[in-house]
Amino acid sequence: MADLTGQIVFRSSKEVTVLHGSDRITCGLPGKFRKETGNVAVVGDRVEFEILSPGSGRLKQVLPRESWLSRRRDVGRGKELILAANVDQVVAVFSARKPKLKFGALDRLLVAAGSQGLSACVVINKSDLGLDKEDEALLSLYPTFDCPLFKTSCETGDGIDRLAEQLKGRSSVVTGPSGTGKSSLISRIFGLDLRIGDVSSYNEKGKHTTSAASWHPVSEDTAVVDTPGFRDYGIWGLGPRQIAEQMPDIHRHSHGCRFTDCLHREEPACAVREAIEKGELHPRRHRSYLGILESVIEREDRR
Ligand SMILES: Nc1nc2c(ncn2[C@@H]2O[C@H](COP(=O)(O)OP(=O)(O)OP(=O)(O)O)[C@@H](O)[C@H]2O)c(=O)[nH]1
Ligand SMILES: [Mg+2]
Ligand SMILES: [Zn+2]
């Protein structure tokens, strides 16, 4: 029988679920499709497979990806962990509180998305819990460098329609720290019944309720991927000089630096640091930049 094509909508350690039309076929996941190098199969991948018996099949081949979002997994020298393939938008979900909004993690995620050629938007969920004035001011900068911002609440419904509009007609990977309400938002917008968990009252962190990525086709032209929350978003495949290019508010000043290889740390006549002094660049964004830079340099040293 001829091979069929479909798309991976779920992957566990041993098998994948392939969507073919409206049929879901379970295929085993032999070693060559599991390794992080080579022909690894991830959620969102288009694949060729054959049917063995009703509802079950065998993977033959992973077809080339149009795009993907990955992060670094810290094992050995580090590995690339692909969160989802064939998406065209990264939706970075953070919460106003519980857990606390972390700009370092937000900026890392945006840099990763940009470096992989994906557009991104920021969602600040749990707006019902109230946003600090300082956070609010800093967040208002993001749309100025073409990163749309959505403030939402699954409790009050605030901002949900606007976000739903942003998801329409695209394939989006929804990512962010645990407990920020990724599964809650997707469930609410698309009427799905995803598992939703608590936030620890002890440290106000999420409890890693979603344990694997899942692809949800919601209409002909719209799909959304729910992913497990992360603790740390490690950047994969980016060199020290490429980071600023992914931070438009920093990059636009870098042309004025005395040294063309300026990394905007302690170098003399650095236009980026001057921009902070002149109030033209937010120091928090520079701090995020330095954090990413240090982590990338540290890893280069380890090689
Ligand atoms: N106050 C408030 N709580 C919310 C909101 N959205 C979600 N929550 C709660 O936040 C908790 C975590 O929600 P989830 O949807 O499971 O969060 P998640 O981001 O999917 O978490 P992981 O799967 O662990 O990554 C649950 O107790 C939700 O009820 C909101 O807008 N406001
Ligand atoms: Mg979840
Ligand atoms: Zn500089």
Can I get a quick summary?
The protein has 303 residues and is an alpha/beta fold. It contains seven helices and 13 strands.
Describe the structure.
The protein is globular, with a radius of gyration of 20 Å. It has 303 residues and is an alpha/beta fold. α1 (103-115) packs across α7 (283-302) and α3 (160-167) packs across α4. It is built from seven helices and 13 strands. It folds into three domains: 4-62, Nucleic acid-binding proteins (OB fold (Dihydrolipoamide Acetyltransferase, E2P), Beta Barrel); 68-226, P-loop containing nucleotide triphosphate hydrolases (Rossmann fold), CATH 3.40.50.300; 240-302, Ribonucleotide Reductase Protein R1, domain 1. The longest helix is centred in the C-terminal third of the chain and has 20 residues, at 283-302. Magnesium ion is lined by residues 182-183, 209-210, 226.
Key descriptive features of the protein:
303 residues; Rossmann fold; single chain; five-stranded mixed barrel; alpha/beta; Ribonucleotide Reductase Protein R1, domain 1; binds magnesium ion; binds zinc ion; OB fold (Dihydrolipoamide Acetyltransferase, E2P); binds guanosine-5'-triphosphate; 3 domains; six-stranded mixed beta sheet; 7 helices
Instruction: Find the CATH topology of the largest domain.
Output: Rossmann fold
SS content category: alpha/beta
How many helices? The count is 7
Overall geometric form: globular
Q: What is the chains' assembly state?
A: single chain
**Range of helix content:** 10-25%
The beta-strand count equals 13
Bound ligand species: guanosine-5'-triphosphate, magnesium ion, zinc ion
List low-confidence stretches. none
Strand order of the largest sheet: 10-9-8-11-13-12
The top level CATH class name of the largest domain: Alpha Beta
Q: Beta-sheet strand percentage?
A: 25-35%
Q: How would you sum up the major sheet?
A: 6 strands, mixed
The CATH superfamily title of the largest domain = P-loop containing nucleotide triphosphate hydrolases
Count of domains: 3
CATH architecture of the largest domain, by name, is 3-Layer(aba) Sandwich
Question: Could you tell me the radius of gyration in angstroms?
Answer: 20 Å
Mean pLDDT across all amino acids? 94
The run of helices and strands is EEEEEEEEHEHEHEHEEHHH
Distance between the termini: 47 Å
